[in-house]
């Protein structure tokens, strides 16, 4: 288990917040989840992707809220095709939408069929994403709310799992539930914790300390706290006009915090296997197996 003092040092910015190292973009794969809806998972995923793209990484973001997609709305695009078309035989590269320096693999809003796909179709989506590994350096997966089989499959497949939590009591409970299922059902051994919409560093520290105490007591899981994202009206403004926060208000407190988060993650995330170009935590993820 991680030392709680060391965990809080990360959230205060004592590690991983130095200058960006120049050179070839590192290969990384991150899933952004959180259990509860409305905690800011999609905002974090999208703006992390844009931040990495601006650092020179060819970046793919995948919306796995398959039947209630919203990344396209935050990105301000209206995709003509979706992952459903790819499952039906369309070329995966023809489904991608490019905007603001990143590529999006979109889902659909209001699709019961996509929201209820089984393990075989989920595995096919992972395989299609894998087929793009030669094209992109960075993968960011936006995971739907909930802790069901679909959500945890996508949350646990990438090499790194990031869980977003905010000060609401329900968010705390659902974040712990998300971590519990990732640990006990999917074999995840480490997760990053990102406090979102907090009003102060003290509130962020308290939030992480409480969640870490639960994890350390009940789960075989290590958690690392990351720099917090402050409550910021610019986040709502960006969503309302369909422009990513990093583009709409790059100097806003939340946008600056997201850049700090990207820098911190850059020094802590797991480098993916360049020999196989795999983004997944284990090879069986792209061969139909499960942990």
Q: State the fourth-level CATH superfamily.
A: P-loop containing nucleotide triphosphate hydrolases
The CATH topology is Rossmann fold
Residue fraction in strands: 15-25%
Instruction: Summarize the main sheet.
Output: 9 strands, mixed
Helices and strands, in order, run as HEHEHHHEEHHEHEHEHEEHHH
Number of helices: 13
Mean pLDDT reading: 88
At the first level of CATH, the class is: Alpha Beta
**Multimeric state:** single chain
Number of beta-strand segments: 9
Distance between the termini: 21 Å
- Class per helix and strand makeup: alpha/beta
Approximate shape: globular
Cα radius of gyration in angstroms:
17 Å
Number of domains: 1
Low-confidence stretches: 1-21, 283-291
The CATH architecture can be named as 3-Layer(aba) Sandwich
The helix content, as a percent range, equals 40-55%
Task: Walk me through the structure.
This protein is α/β, with parallel strands linked by helices and 291 residues long. It has one domain: Rossmann fold (3-Layer(aba) Sandwich). The protein is 43% helix and 15% strand. It contains 13 helices and 9 strands. The protein has helices at 4-11, 41-54, 71-75, 83-87, 92-95, 112-115, 119-130, 149-156, 169-186, 201-218, 233-241, 245-248, 253-268, and strands spanning 28-33, 59-63, 97-99, 102-105, 138-142, 160-165, 190-198, 222-225, 229-230. Strands 1, 2, 3, 4, 5, 6, 7, 8 and 9 form a 9-stranded mixed sheet that branches. Helix 2 crosses helix 13 (253-268). The two termini are 21 Å apart.
């Amino acid at each position: 288990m991680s030392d709680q003092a060391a965990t809080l040092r990360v959230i205060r910015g004592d590690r991983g917040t130095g200058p960006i190292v120049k050179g070839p973009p590192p290969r990384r794969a991150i899933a952004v989840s959180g259990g509860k809806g409305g905690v800011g998972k999609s905002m974090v995923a999208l703006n992390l992707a844009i931040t990495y793209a601006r650092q020179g990484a060819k970046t793919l973001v995948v919306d796995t809220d398959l039947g209630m997609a919203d990344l396209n709305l935050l990105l301000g695009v209206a995709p003509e095709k979706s992952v459903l078309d790819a499952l039906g035989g369309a070329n995966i590269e023809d489904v991608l939408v490019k905007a603001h320096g990143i590529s999006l693999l979109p889902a659909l809003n209001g699709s019961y069929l996509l929201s209820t796909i089984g393990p075989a179709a989920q595995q096919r989506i992972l395989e299609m994403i894998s087929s793009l590994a030669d094209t992109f350096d960075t993968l960011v997966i936006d995971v739907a709310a909930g802790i069901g089989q679909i959500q945890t499959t996508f949350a646990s497949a990438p090499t790194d799992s990031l869980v977003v939590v905010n000060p609401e009591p329900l968010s705390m409970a659902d974040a712990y539930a998300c971590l519990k299922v990732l640990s006990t059902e999917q074999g995840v051994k480490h997760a990053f914790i990102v406090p979102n919409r907090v009003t102060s560093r003290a509130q962020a520290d308290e939030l992480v300390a409480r969640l870490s105490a639960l994890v350390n007591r009940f789960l075989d899981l290590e958690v690392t706290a990351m720099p917090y994202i402050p409550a910021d009206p610019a986040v709502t403004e960006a969503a309302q006009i369909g422009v990513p926060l990093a583009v709409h208000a790059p100097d806003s407190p939340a946008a600056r915090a997201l850049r700090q988060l990207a820098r911190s993650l850059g020094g802590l995330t797991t480098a993916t296997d360049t020999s196989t170009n795999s983004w997944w935590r284990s090879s069986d993820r792209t061969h139909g197996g499960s942990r």
